[in-house]
Here is the input.
Amino acid sequence: MRVLHITSGNMYGGVESFLTTLVREAHSTPTMQSEFAVCWSGRFSEELERLGSRPHRLGHVRLSRPFTVIRARRALRDLLRRERFDVVVCHQPWPCVVFGSVVRGQGFPLVVWVHMAGEGRHWLERLCRRTRPDLAICNSRFTATAASKWLPHAHIEHVYCPVSRESGQSLEARGRLRQQFGTPADDVVIVQVSRLEPWKGQRVLISALAGLRNVPSWTCWIVGGPQRQEDVAYLRDLHELARQHGVADRVRFLGERSDVLAVLRAADVFCQPNTSPEPFGLSLVEALVAGLPVVTSGIGGACEIVDQTCGVLTPPGDISALAAALRRQIDEPAFAQGLRDAAAVRPRTICDPSRQMHRIQQVLSSVAA
Here is the structure.
């Protein structure tokens, strides 16, 4: 089965991390061949090429400039006439709106993979609904429930993302990273890895850390760099917030990193206090794979990932509860170690790469030409 995955390619986040995992884990499903089409070149296309999967380039698209849409649709039409695929998957409503009519016109099954738990109010979701995909795949039960409200006529399946199991990291490598980031070797490192968006909860985390000013031996790493102009202003606000709360010397902003797994393995606890529901929470699973207990908000897809064996769920926006949860990670080493021992086991039950790759193949095969 030959599958064409279409995505914009202008950002790098959970969607792009998932798509690169399809390439890394392709050996699990040798009869399913995944190929990719993108509009923008950037980190995602470079990562695909590094993995040996050169993407098809459709050209930059701006919906405000109709000629760019026409040009990209023509490029996809030529590709579909030139190559034979069994199914075409549009990741998120945007590519479905831009390219769905072309996929339909060329007689290919159309699948939309929904990675965000929208309510159908956004104009892209409304236009996507009019395209009437043959199948909608959602990244969690939470997302599937939301999608069923605005895709009432589509068959919906939920598939957890496969997450690769990586080898461990030496104590020397852990020490080198801590030294690089100016972090004492014995500090408890609290890390957040996510895009710089307010709903990811960086402000809540910094505010909670203000309550730990008098607690010794902790450092916080915030990983994620600006990808849009508004992200630059948000990062500046976070720096100022840390200064106002008197924790600027203990909060390190590491920017965008390509060695996220190594950074996670050099930390001790993962914290992402979302103020809005996470559709799934791929970064939470990656933290568990790295052996980190997870402290996050008890809303959305996170509740399908984190339980009391491997982490702590706190009420969204509750700074006091978050501070208490983090303080326990610092003050009670035995409690934290128990969570770490269970953390690496938890992903196998939901995101085992071999099992989830076969699940993806099974679901796509149900509509494949």
Summary: Residues 66-82 form the longest helix (17 residues).
